[in-house]
Amino acid sequence: MIDKGVTTFMVLATSLVMLMTPGLSFFYGGLGNKKNILNIMMQSYVSLGVTTVLWFAFGYSLCFSGTMGAGTDFMGIIGNLDKAFLNGVTPYTMMEGKAFPEYVFFAYQMMFAIITPALITGAFVDRVTFKSYVFFLIFWQIFVYYPFVHMVWGGGILQVWGVLDFAGGIVVHATAGFAALIAVIYVGKRKDAHTLKPNNIPLVAIGTALLWFGWYGFNAGSELDMNAITVSAFINTDVSASFAAVTWLIIEWNFGHKRPTFIGLMTGAVAGLATITPAAGYVTVGAAAVIGIAAGIICYLAVEFKNYMKWDDALDVWGVHGMGGIAGTIMLGIFATKQINEAAPNGLLYGGGFELLGKELTAILLAAVWASAFTWGMLHLINKFIKVKVSDQDQELGLDLSVHGEIARIH
Predict the structure, then answer these.
(1) For the segment 366-404, what is each residue's pLDDT rounded down to a tens digit?
(2) Looking at residue 29, which CATH number applies to its domain?
(3) Any residues with CB less than 8 A from the CB of 395 and at least 6 apart, and which?
(4) pTM score, two decimals?
(5) Using CA atoms, how far apart are residues 283 and 325, in angstroms rounded to an integer?
(6) Is residue 298 part of a domain?
(7) Number of domains forming the structure of the chain
(8) Residue 36 belongs to what domain range?
C-alpha cells in the first residue's frame, strides 16, 4: 500500500538529485575557460537525455533485475534484462519492501546514473571532442557504472559479501574520480593550462548552492524511507560539508595561497559532501564532523599532490570526488555504529574489528582498478574510430565556437 508521505518525500528527493546535474554544470562552467563554458555545461546536460534513454532501455534492468542469491544475475556482477523498457513495471507496481511505487525508485536511481559520468567531465575540460564524449558516456555507464550499482546495491556480489555504501562513495565518487584521473593521463595536458583561471566565480557559487541543496536528496533519500536514519543522513550531510569548507579555508589561508578564497571555501564544501556520502546513514553527527575535517585535509592534500605530479585534472575531480569517496568509505569502516543504523555492523571504533573496514578497502581497490582499466580501454578503443582529443586549433579558438557554433556571452 502506498504511503503518501514517504512517496512524496522520495519524489522530492528524486527532484533534488536531478537538480544536482544542472548545478554541476554551473559549478564546472564557472571554473572553466570562458571559451569553453557551453561545451563544459553541455557535457553535463547531455547526460540528462542520453542516460535517461539508456536507463529506460536496459540500464535499470541490468542494475536491479536478478540477484546473486537467487542465481538470476550474471555471476553477481550484472543483472539481467527482465525489466528492460520497464517490462512488467506499472505505476501500480510497488517497490519491494517499500511503501512507494517502483516507478519512483526507477527515477531516483536514474538521477544517480545521470550525474556520475558528468562528474568525470570536470577533469578533461577543453580537450575532448564532443562526439567522443557521448560515446564515452554510453560505454562508461554500461561497463563501469552499471556493474558497480548491481554489485553494491542491486543484490550483487559485494552487497552479498557485506560491503556498505549508503549513497555512492564507491559506486559514484570512487569510480568517477579514478576514471577522471585516467582520462586526464590519456588525453594529456591543455595547451595553455597554466594561464587558465575561473571565468565566473558567482556561477561557481550558484553551482555549489545547487549541489549542496541537491545533496540532501542524494544522501537522505538513499534511506528510501522517512525515519531516524533519514534524518541522520540529512544532518550529517550538512555538518560534513560545513566542517570541510571551514577546514579547507583555514588550510588555504594559513598554508596555501595565504588568502581566504571563495573557490577554496566552495571546493572544501563539495569535498565534505562527497566524503560523507558513503557513511551518511551509518554514523553519528559527531563522526560526521570528524569526517568533514578529514575531508578538508585529505582532499586538499590530494589536490596539492595532483599539482606536484603535474596531472592536468582541471577541476580536481580525482582529488575531491575520487579521494573524498575513498576517504569516506574508509571512515565508514571506522565510524559505522548500530546506534544509528541497525542494518550495519559496528565499525572499528565501536568494537566491530577490522571486518567491515577490510571489506570496504577491498571494494575501494576493486572500484579504482576496474574504473581505471575500463576507462583507459574505452578511450583507446573510441580513439580508433573517433578522435578523442581536440586539435590545437580548436583549443585555441575555444570549443564553444569550434564545436557548437555558440558563445556563452554576447557583448
Answers:
(1) 999 999 999 999 999 999 999 999 998 998 899 999 999
(2) 1.10.3430.10
(3) 126, 127, 190, 191, 192
(4) 0.96
(5) 15
(6) yes
(7) 1
(8) 4-211+223-404
